[in-house]
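Here is an idea for our session: we take a single protein and study its fold together. Start from the sequence, derive the C-alpha cells from it, and show both lines together. Once you have written the record down, we can walk along the chain together:
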Amino acid sequence: MRVVLDLQGSQTESRYRGIGRYSISLAQAIVRQAGNHEIFVVLNSRLDDSVVDLLQTFSALIPEENIRIFDVPTPLAEDRKENWWRNRAAEKIREDFIQRIKPDVVLVTSLFEGFSDNAVTSIGAYCNDKNTAVVLYDLIPYLNPAHYLPTQLHEEYYDRKIRSLQSAGLLLAISDASRQEVIKALGVEPDKVINISAAIDEKFGQDCQPRGDLGELFQQLGISRKMVLYVPGGFDKRKNFEGLIKAYSLLDAGTRENHQLVIASRLDNYQRDQLNRARIESGLNADELVLTGYLKDSDLTSLYSEATLFVFPSTHEGFGLPILEAMTCGAPVIGSNATSIPEVIGLPDALFDPASPSSIAEQMQCVLSDPVYQQRLREHGAIQAKKFSWDDCAKKAILALEDFARRLKSPSVPDDPETLLRAIAEIPYTENGPTEGDLGAIAECIAFNLPPNRARELLLDVSVIVHSDARSGIQRVVRSLLLELLSHPPENIVVRPIYFYKGAYRYANEFALKITDQPIYRGGDYVVEFHQGDTYLALDLLAHLTTELQGIYSILRRRGIRLYFLVYDLLLIQHPEWWPRGTGQAFDEWLTSICEVATGLMCISNSVAAEVREWLEKNPPKHKKIPAIHSFHLGADVENSVPTRGMPDNASDVFETLAIRKTFLTVGTLEPRKGHAQMLAAFDQLWQRGIDVNFVIVGKCGWLVDDMVKKIRSHAELNRRLFWLEGISDEYLEKIYASSDCLIAASEGEGFGLPLIEAAQHKKPIIVRDIPVFREVAQNHAFYFSGTTPENLALAIDGWLGLCEQGLVPSSEHMSWLTWKQSAALLKEKLFPEQKVL
C-alpha cells in the first residue's frame, strides 16, 4: 500500500500547538510501523519556515525521494477575499500533484488549515479522490459558530472544510469523544470514523529527568513559589482562562501565599492584556499570575516536573495532549469533566465542572492541601500515561487505512496537464482575479510540480575556479573531484558544473568542455533549471558570496534540492590571526549561513569532521536541526587531477644542485600557519652548525609573510642550498619530489595534508608536526616533531639525519592513500547512500 501523508499541519502556526505535535508524531510512528507499506510525505513549499526541518526529520526515516514538495500560487490566506480565485486554483494544483504520486490512500493530518496562511487543503476540488482520509481533532467551531466563526469569510471557509471533511472516505479520530461528536453532529456513518487516540513523544518523558538547579530559569520567568500550572496548548475561549483565574482567586489566602498560578503558552500582547485584566478583576496581585510565553520543550518539562499541581480547565478538547505531558513528567493532574478530557485523565475523582469556578477551586484546594492525594495523583498519572503510545496510534491508523484501501477503486487521475489547466480556467473569475501575474505563477507552479523531463542532476558549484584557477590546494581538489565526477557520474545522475553570475546560477558548459568533450555541455552557459530531487554540491569555498547566496540556498532547500558543502577546515575561525583582517569573520558568516540550509557537510578528514561537530554543538543552527556531517579522504594521484605542464629553463641546474647533498622539501603556499619561518630559521641553525643540506620551498607567496619573503629573497644561501620555487607546474613538482630526500610538513593547522601522500607516492620519508590530522593521514609512517621554535625543528631534523644514517627512519612506502577515483567514489556514497557505488 502506498500512503501519502499531507503534513501541512506541521508547517503552519499549528506546529506550535497540539495539532502540529500530533501531525508529526503520528507521521513518524506510521513510518516506524509501516512494514512493507510505502510512505510518502508531502510538504507545501510556500510554508517555508518549516520545510527544511521536516526534510531533515523525514529524510532520516524514508528515502528523500519519498518526500515531495509542491508549489502553489500565493498569497492564499482565506481571511482575504481577494485570494478566493487563487485559492480555488491552488486546491486543484495540490490535488493533481498528490494524485500523480499514485497513492492507494492519502492521509491529511490537518484539514482545517489555510485561513491566515498559505496552506491549502481540499478533497474532491479537482480529482475524484475518494481515497483521502483525514485526522479528526474536533468540531469546536462547528458547534460554537458564534464565537469561532465571527465573519462571513470565517463561515464560508469553515463550510468548505466541513464539506471536504464529509467527502473524506475515512476519518481517524483522536479520541472517542471526537468520534462521537462527528457522528452525531454531521451524521457520518460510524464505520467511517475510527478512534486511533493520541500520545506524546517518548523523548518527552526522558526530558522530564531532574535538571538540577532551575533557579536561573525560574528567576527569568518570574516563578518564586510553588506552581499551579496550566499549559493550554493554544489561546481561545474554550481554554477557560477566566474560569481558572477566578477559581484560583477563590483559594484560601494561605494557599495563594505559597503558590503562583503559572500559564505556559505562546501569547501575543493582546492575549497577555486579556489575562492580566482577568487577574485584576478577580482581585489577584501581579505576582500571583505568571505568564511565561512560549517555552522550548526542555524548559516546559522542567515546569511540569516541578509543578505542585497541573490543572486543565478546558471546556472542549479533541484530546488534551498537555495532560499526558504533565502526567508523564510526574505532575499531579486534575481536569474538566467535559468532552475527551475524562478519557485522558482516567480518574473520575480528579475531575471538576469547568463551568463552575467554585468546582475548580474546590478540587484545586483539595489537592494542594493534601500531600497524600497529590502522591495518589502522581502514581495514577504515571500508570495512565503509559496506556497511550504513538506506535499504538500508528498501528490503529495503518489497520484502518489498509481496510480503507481494500474497499477503494483506483481514483481517476488525469495525466495530461492540459486537463488541469482547463479545470483552472473554468473557475469563475472575480473582481480580484486572476491577474496576469496569477496566470504566470500558476504555470510556474505546475511546471515545478510535474516530474522533470530529464534525469536528476548533481550540480557542482565551481564558481571560483570557473573564473580563475589559482592552482591552490583547494582548487586542485575542485579540479580533481570535478574531473572524476564528470567521468564517472553516479548511476542515473547527470553531473553538471554550475557557477553563480549576476544573481543567478548558470551551467558551466564552456568550462566543462575544456575538460570533457561530451555533447551535453554544448550550447552555452544558460540559467540552471533546478528541480526537486537534484543535488547541489559546493566544491569551491564561496565565503565571499555568502550575502548573495543565502536567500537562493533557502529557496532551493525549500523546493526539495539537497544542499551539500565541502568543508576543508575551520582554521579561519580557530586562528583568524593567520589571515588578513576580516577573512575569519567572513568564513564564520559563511559557515553559519550554510548550516541553516545544508542537508550535509562533507569534511575532507575525520579531524575536520570532529571539529565541525564541536563547533556546531556550540553554534547550533537557529532555524533547523544540525545537518549531517560526513568525512572522506582526498585523492592524491596527480596524473588524474588535470596536472599542469611545463619546465623552467634552469630546471636541469636545479636538479644538479639538489643531487649534491640531502634535500629537504616543503610544499604549500607561503602563509603564517605553514611554518615557513620556523623551517627557514631551523635550517639557518643547521647550516651554521656545518650540516650541509638543501632546503627547497615550493609554493606561491601568500599573505602576512612580507618580512619572511624579504628574508628569503635576500638570503645568502638562495639558489645555493636554499631554493624557492614559486607557482611551478605539477610536472616540475613531480620531478622535485623525485629529487628530494625528505618532505617536511610544519603546518600548525591543516584540513588534510596532500603533500604527505604525494611524498609517500615517491617513497620519500616525512617529517611532520604532531597535529591530529597529520596523525590521521600518516599514522606511524612519519617522523613527528613538536614545538614552534627553530630549535625544536632543528633538533628534530638533526635527530632524523642520525636515524637516517642507521637506516631507522620511518618509511612512508606503505602509507595508505586514495586515488581521486576512489575519493570521488566515497563522496558519491555519502551523497547518494541509496546507490551502491562500485
User: Anything to note?
Assistant: The longest strand covers residues 493-501. The first helix runs from residue 18 to 32. The CA atoms of residues 460 and 497 lie 5 Å apart. The chain has four domains: 2-199+411-448, 202-385, 452-635, 647-817.
